[in-house]
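Q: What does the assembled structure look like for these inputs?
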Amino acid sequence: MRYLITGGSVLTGAGIHQLDVEIIDGSVSRLEPGIQQDGHEVTEAAGKWVGPGFFDLHTHLREPGQEWKEDIASGMAAAIAGGYTTVVAMPNTDPVIDAGHLARQIARTEPIRVIPSGAISLGQQGRQLAHLDDLWAAGVRIFTDDGHTVADAGLLRRAMEYIAQLGGLVAQHAEDPGLCRDGHMHEGSVSSRLGITGLPSAGEEVIIARDLRLVELTGCRYHIQHVSTAGSVELVRSAKRAGLPVTAEVTPHHLMLDHREVESMDPVFKMYPPLRSPDDVAALREALRDGTIDAVATDHAPHAAFEKDVTFEEAPRGVVGLETAGSIVHAAVGLDQAAFFERMAIAPAAVLDKSSGPIAIGTTDVIVFDPGAEWAYERPRSKSANSPWLGQTLRGAVTEVFTRSGLVSAIEEGVQ
Amino acid sequence: MRDLLSVDDLDRAAIDDLLDLGDDFVEVLGRDVPKVPALRGKTVGLMFYEPSTRTRLSFDRAAKALSADVLTFTPGGSSVSKGESLKDTALTLKAMGPHLMVVRHKATGAPWRVRDWTGLPVVNAGDGAHQHPTQALLDLLTLRRHFGKVDGLRVAIVGDIRHSRVARSLAGSLHTMGASVTLVAPSTLLPIDVDSWEVDSAAGIDEVLGEVDVVYLLRIQTERGGGEVFPSVAEYVSRFGLTRRRADQLPADTVVMHPGPMNRGVEIDPQVADGPRALVTDQVSNGIAVRMAVLFRLLTSEVPE
Amino acid sequence: MYRHPRSRLGGLMPQVMTSDDLDRAIRRISHEIVERHHGTDGIVLVGIHSRGVPLAEQIASNIESSEKVRVPVGELDIGLYRDDLASRPTTRLGRTLIPVDLSGETVVLVDDVLYTGRTIRAALDAILDLGRPKRIELAVICDRGHRELPIRPDYVGKNLPTSGHEKVSVRIKGIDDVAGVWITDGGDA
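A:
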C-alpha cells in the first residue's frame, strides 16, 4: 500500500515543519511539501501532529495466565488505539517470565512490537536470581520484578553487578515492604479520614535512595518505574546531576489525578504507587517538562470488571492506560509537539537503546495525533475497562497509526 | 434522609432530629410492652461480615421493637466461605425482599458499595476503620440525656484512634454538635496527619484529667502490643490507662464512656468500669433507641419534613 | 359573639361552636361519664395527642369540681401505630404517659374530632399494648361522620354532618389562641 499524510505538522530532525509524508511498504519514502497524489491512500493532517509511534516501557499484557484480563492480541489492539507502536511487557505473568523460552513466547513484531522484560529474581520471589543469561539470549534487555520490589539489597546488588556486565537495565518498582505493609492508598489527609492504611511517600523514596547507592557501587543502569512523589523526583534530579546512569518514568494517571479522588472509595482509583498529593502531581509535571523524568509509561494494568467490583481495600491494584495516555498527558502537562513526542516515544525508546526519533526517510512507526480532537472513550479495545476516564470525552486523539504492517488504526467518527 | 452512611452526612439539625426521636424511643422501650407496630410489614436485612454480637443484637432488637422483620446474614458457614463476593451476597439478600440493609464490613466503603449495587437504603453499622454513625449517635444521645446538651462539652477520646471507626464518627459528630475533642494516644495510634482533624491531641491521659467532662475510652487491641505499635500493655497503661488513681482525680461530674467490649485492667480499671461515673450500660440501651430512630426515619419518610 | 378567622383559602370560615358552646359540651360529657359509671371509680382519662390531652384535662377538672375526686389523666401519642406512616412521615413523636396501671380500669379515650376512625383504631392498639383495661370508651367533641371502620363514640359534644372535602377545626384553650369549632372547606391538614 502507498499512503500519503498531507499538510500535517511533522516532527523532523530539523524541527517542526508543514510537510507531506509518503509511506510505502511500511516505511517513510518521501518527506517534502506538495507530494503529488498518485494512487495513495490519503490522510488529511492539517492542524495535526505527525511524529514517531509511542513507546511504552511498562505494559501488563497478562498473557500467559490471566487471559480473562488481557492477552497479547487485545493488548496490542489497545496499544494501537492509543498510538503505541512498541510496548514492553512486564514479566509478572503466570508463570513469571524468568527464563528465555517464556520471553520468546511473548515477543511480537507485527503489527506492533512487543518487547518482553524479564524477572530479576526467580518467580519474582526476591530470593535467587532469575535465568538472566538465558533471558539475555532470548533478547531481554530490561529486568524487573515489577509489582514487587527487590527489597533485599544484597540480592539487588548481585543482580545489578550481573546485569551491568551483560549490558542490561535494572528497573525497580520502589515500595518498601515494611513501610507500605497493608497500605492501599497514599498516606495523608484523605487516608486519615477514610481510615485506610496508607503507603507513605517515604516508602518509595527510601528504596530509590538506597538503590542509587547501589548504582554507584555497581555501575548498573537503573530505571525507576512509575515515580510518584516529589521526593523521588528530587532523588532522580540529584542522581542525574551526579552523572549516574539513571532514568525514570511517570504514568499518565499520576500526572492527572491526586489522592482526593479516593474520597469516592471507587476501586478504579486504586493502583500502586497510589495517587499522591496535589503537590506531588505538580512536581511530576514539572519533572516531565524539564526532563528529570525521561518518559511517560502507562503501567497499563488490566483487571476484569468483576475483580474491581468489590471494596477499595479488597480490589486489585492497577488501571488501564494504553488507549488514553496521549490524551491524558496532553491535557495534564500541555507539552509542545516536540516535547510531547520526546516523552511519549523518543526518550522511552532511548532508555532501552531502541531506535526512535524524528520522522525521516526510512522511519517505520508514524502516528498522527490531533491535539484539538475530542473523542469519547466508550469502547475499549482492551479486554478490561478499569479506567477513571471510561465514558468520558477526552481531548487530543491519535487518529492514524502506521507501522511496518501499514495503516493499522484509524479513528472512527469521534469514537475510538 | 435515604441512607445513614457517615456522620459527615448529618448536620446539626439532622442529628438533633434523630436524638429527639431516640428520646421518644427510650420511653417506648420502658413500656410494659416495649414494642410498637410502626414498621409492621417492613423487613430489615442485616449483613454482618465481622463478628459483632452487640451491634447486631442492637439492630435486631431495634427492628423488632418497631415490629419489622429481620433477615440476618453472617458469613460463618455461609456461601462467603465458599468464595461468594460481597456483591453477589448483597444481590442474593436483596432478592429476599428487605426494605433496607444494615451493613458491617471490615473494608472502608463497603456500605456505599452495597447501596450502589442494591439500590436499597443502607445503614452503615461499621466499615473498616472509617465510620460507625449509629455508635456516634448513641454516644451523643447518652451525653445529651446525661448532661442535657452536647454543645460545649469537653471530650477526651483515649486509645487506638488511628484504627477506630468509633473515634472517626464520634470526633466528627461531636464537632458538628459544638463539643470540643482532645485525642489522647501514643503517636503510633493517633491518626495520620492529625492536624487535618478539627481536634486537639495530648500525649498522656494525665494532661487532660482535670479539664474534661467526658473520658471516652477505646478498646486497646492487646495483640497490637508486644512491640508492634506500643512496647507493652503495661507501658500503655502507665501513660494512657484510666486507673483508679486517675479516676479519683477527675472532676466530680466527669463521666466515663466506652463503646465495648472493654478490656478491664487495660484501658480501664475494673472498678471504674463498674463505678458510678461509667455510662456504659446507658450507651447500650440508648443504642437500641437510636437505632430505632434511624430505622424509623429511613423506612417511614420518603422526603424528610 | 361569632368570630371569623380567615381560612387558608382566604374565605370566611363558618363557626359552628363558640368557646362557650365548647365549655358546655365538655361539661356535659364530664357529667355523662360520671353518670354512666355511677361515680368515678376505676375511670382513667386518656387524651390522644395533641388536642385530646388538654380536653382530657378539662374533663378531669370538671369531674373534680363536681365530685371532689381527681381522676387519673394519661396522654397517648399514636404516631407509631398509624397505618399511613409511609405516606405521612412523623416529625416528632408526642409523649405517651399513662400514670396508672390500666389493668381492670375503664379507659375513656378523649379526642377532638372523630372522622374515619383510623386514629381511634391506632389508639386502641396502643392502649392494649400498654395494659389490659376492663373497658375502653370514647369521648369526642365532634363526630363528623365518614367512618371507615366500625367505631362509634360513647360521648359526643356535637354531631356535625360534613362533606369529605371539608375540614373540622377544633381550637382549645391552652393550645390555640381562640377556642371554638369551625368548618372550613378544602385543605387537607
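Residues 19-36 of chain C form the longest helix (18 residues).
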